[in-house]
């Protein structure tokens, strides 16, 4: 598992979750860039597979933290503890 | 790996919603209120631990207020809502269209009710990879069959309970829905190696017989892939000895992973390099069950020079001896 490096100004679960989703999106775009290069023959199958190994490790780390902080958000009563005021009538 | 032959699955379809071919399970105009329509296979208790399944999903119609499920692994044959409502063990992929017309592909853990979702389109191919790894369940959704363009990765925290049934289709069974859906699941690949034949008892089917290019980047260590989900590592135990002659290899350790389970075996391997002998690898898998393999025909296209790093050609034949577990559970 590769440890996620959070910026120093990101400390709470909400910001960490946002950071993780944005990082996951950046990783997805990087994945697809490599995938395109592979489809177009710009990189070999071995390089593509080598990349996927790194991608999977990074992806797994992101998912692990996403699930952790997402769960913390779901249970954070300081964010919302009153369903009655959460929807427009 | 071969895709599942869906005609071997059990089809329960009282309202004639489903058409099953070898590779495709098509559902037409199924209302979310459908109570007992499913296509599934009983793989026996405890079959699915960690797994990685591939399937394609294509929806041709998703009316507002509709839902149905597709790839599902569970411990009970019931509708989606019954399984979910009773907190049964299971992991499911469903397509849902809300009253506002938002269309999603969603994953859900029946037991914990954890979920995640992706906004999808109709008349679009989605190539999915569902993976359970311990308490993490993910669904990677791609736009191409080569899985080079990733659209999204859904994730949830799940239980580790082993599961029994695999579904290609599962009705939703929710009275509050009012719309219908049409679409199909195709090319369901459980990525399992076929179970060894029970007779003859001594030798199971050949696990690997291929030749691979390997990169020896550490002295006395050889890493090579055997197949998509099997990775073997072979190395000599004595770092003072080299891979220059077969006689110098006095021990071999083989690590074998399949569906994330891990087997590690060590055996004497004198002269194996010269393709003269066979050896038996005995070890414990992740379930602490004894598993024996016959390893033979390990050979190089050339003898690596002492301390030499480089690309070598290796072939290995690995046969299972005792049918302790189906291959799919290794």
Could you explain the architecture of this structure?
The complex is a heterodimer of chains A (89) and B (330). With 89 residues, chain A is mostly helical. Chain A has helices at 13-39, 45-74. Chain A has a domain at 13-73. Chain A is built from two helices and no strands. In chain A, helix 1 packs antiparallel against helix 2. With 330 residues, chain B is mostly beta strands. Chain B has one helix spanning 80-85; strands spanning 10-12, 18-20, 24-31, 38-42, 51-62, 66-74, 90-97, 103-109, 115-119, 125-133, 136-142, 150-157, 165-170, 180-189, 206-208, 211-216, 221-227, 230-235, 251-258, 261-268, 279-284, 290-300, 310-320. In chain B, strands 15, 16, 17, 18, 19, 20, 21, 22 and 23 form a nine-stranded antiparallel beta sheet that branches. Chain B has a seven-stranded antiparallel beta sheet with strand order 1-4-13-6-7-8-9. A seven-stranded antiparallel beta sheet of chain B has the order 2-3-14-5-10-11-12, with no helix packed on it. In chain B, strand 2 and strand 3 form a beta hairpin. Chain B is globular. At the A-B interface, helix 1 and helix 2 of A face strand 12 of B.
- Assembly level: heterodimer
Q: Treating each run of at least 4 consecutive H or I residues as one helix, how many helices of chain B?
A: 1
Number of strands of chain A: 0
| CATH fold group of the largest domain in chain B | Jelly Rolls
Largest β-sheet summary of chain B: 9 strands, antiparallel
**Portion of residues within helices of chain B:** under 10%
SSE string of chain B, helices as H and strands as E: EEEEEEHEEEEEEEEEEEEEEEEE
Largest contact between protein chains? Answer: A-B, 17 and 15 residues
Report the average pLDDT across residues of chain B: 72
Task: Note the gap between the termini of chain A.
Answer: 46 Å
Roughly what fraction of the amino acids of chain A lie in strands? under 5%
Work out the helix count of chain A: 2
Using the coordinates above, name the CATH class of the largest domain in chain B: Mainly Beta
Strand content of chain B: over 45%
Distance from N terminus to C terminus of chain B (CA atoms, Å) equals 15 Å
Rg of chain B, please?
23 Å
Domain count of chain B: the total is 2
- Tell the overall outline of chain B: globular
The share of residues in helices of chain A is 55-70%
Order of helices and strands of chain A: HH
What coarse outline of chain A follows from CA principal-axis ratios? elongated
